[in-house]
């Protein structure tokens, strides 16, 4: 009897204490909001100050510290702060001289001349020489006597025939075939000649110096005092903290452990709007339901077209991005407006009946089962997948989501192409060629196994031509081919929702996928 | 005697409520649990949506029904696997003893030596994620505890006079094992099952919470909790609903077990 009563009392006590804890949480929240408001108003319109350290959340571990070996977009966005190329992209999408102070392209598009900027120093204190430039270019272009095999030479760079030293200030890059787009590829890092420890202690010329790296934890960089732009950087130290997913990043933002986090979901952004500055930009990614064109049933173009008709892109945007972001109709994003064929947006309008008809024609009147492999660290893609699964049910396609670790996504899906479909965002350099080149039949980045001889021919022509108008037309033709073949189900260029600590200013968006910390500063 | 009844009654009521909840969920849910509706995202509980809606505008009440069904199903199958294999292994090794007993028990010792969640993680990473694989993984994990319980009971009971009598009368070993001994282990086995069921529910919720169990968009209680954690401040009902269901169920079974 006694024992029973005691238990019962405990039970009631437990329930009560739980409700007290919960209500206490809510009280705390309200208090936070109140105390934050006055400081925000005081923050505005204040001058940048030097010093201070911040923590930036990133979603994936780095695949290599060596800038020439890294392939993941998530690695390059961080390395942007440590390394610089001959040229680099600026906020408006232009290529501006970086380690080189000026460049000159010969009229026939075959010789690029670069002049080394005066007084650029590596992080180890040594002055950059033309030999370092030549070494770096050759290393990336696979022209060294002993080039590391793990450096993937991009097709655009394999066009380089030789790199010649003109004098102590100038180098010439000589091409096999004329190409006016090469500049966009010369953003790769300039590193010291014959430096062996790039993969463990990377040395570059960027605004920040490498300090330490702990796998799966963080990358720490400190201010480069010798940076040639003596106004930048403002911060003394930036820690890139690797977080498991947007959920944990969100909690860390709440607790104040992270100052900047770029990949919020729309709901999270709304919740943080009171305590953080929320900035909205574009990710400049092609997010799509990428279909493996080599496996059943996606080897049939009709099936791929059916899926394209069955997907309501606008609804996806409303659901996962709160209506922000842009839908896309082909493998290009709106930032490259000059090259974006706008009419392709209207090729696949949401039409369930048409999708069903196409499926029936293809021999799947009752639909089929499919698996969507999604990297679990990108909540945005997982959310998109969930909405897609619902939409595909309307045409009888029974999709199953399989979440995988980022590392296994890279090896299984991207490298080994052992998958049926996946949702991911594909990034690009500041050259439209980079967006489209991966779909050449033999391209190493062609993870969807798209094969179309016409595409290869037009791509070849587009790369070789030096006439800009012709180039634009040919690129648009390529986009049209991709869309008409429904190589994949193109969905959107996701909005980039960034939470920035209210004490910070200067956060800027780039038309490429980078996080520039050199312009970030504390306001007092 | 009386105290036991109170525990048992409260426990049964709680479990009963949950069973009714799940049973109704099998035949009827107010909304399609996976139906998304952009116009009612993150709505607070109301008369149209008893538990509110989630970030996709899905009805949380319907998803709780669906999720509880999944979780219960996983728990029931998992425990069944554990009971069936555990009983057979336990009975054989307890009854025959000797080298057979040694082999079985050492294998089980090895299984028990690892933290169960770690072992489940290993299974899942080998087999892949998904509902079926989680059932297999957890099922294997539940065998040792049942095998041990049954074995010790069988060892105790086989010394009793009525078993010896049956032996003298020439009953076969199998008959003695399964007709004479096993029924006597049921009271102990039953309480082991209720504890096991609780553990299975928590294990499934834990694995799905980690993203290794049931895959989205399917609902399970753990999966819902995991999805809800981002919204704990802005939409607390999202986390509270599946949380309460887990608490009530586990509490119910624990109280029943005590009684």
Can you describe what's shown?
Chain A: One of its GO terms (biological process) is peptide transport. Chain A: It is found in: Cell membrane. Chain A: One of its GO terms (cellular component) is periplasmic space. Chain A: Keywords: Signal, Transport. The complex is a heterodimer of chains A (about 525) and B (about 260). Chain A folds into 2 domains: about 1-200 and about 495-524, Dipeptide-binding Protein, domain 1 (Alpha-Beta Complex); about 285-495, Roll (Dipeptide-binding Protein, domain 3). Helices cover about 30% and strands about 20% of the residues of chain A. Chain A has 13 helices and 22 strands. Chain B is mainly alpha-helical and about 260 residues long. Chain B is built from 9 helices and no strands. The longest helix of chain B has about 35 residues, at about 60-95. The interface of A and B includes residues 3, 7, 265 and 268 of A.
Biggest sheet details of chain A: 6 strands, mixed
| Annotated CATH homologous superfamily of chain B | MetI-like
Distance between the termini of chain B: 9 Å
Q: Identify low-pLDDT runs of chain B.
A: none
Determine the structural class of chain B based on helices, strands and strand pairing: mainly alpha
Radius of gyration of chain A: 25 Å
Order of helices and strands of chain B: HHHHHHHHH
**Beta-strand fraction estimate of chain B:** under 5%
Broad CATH class of chain B: Mainly Alpha
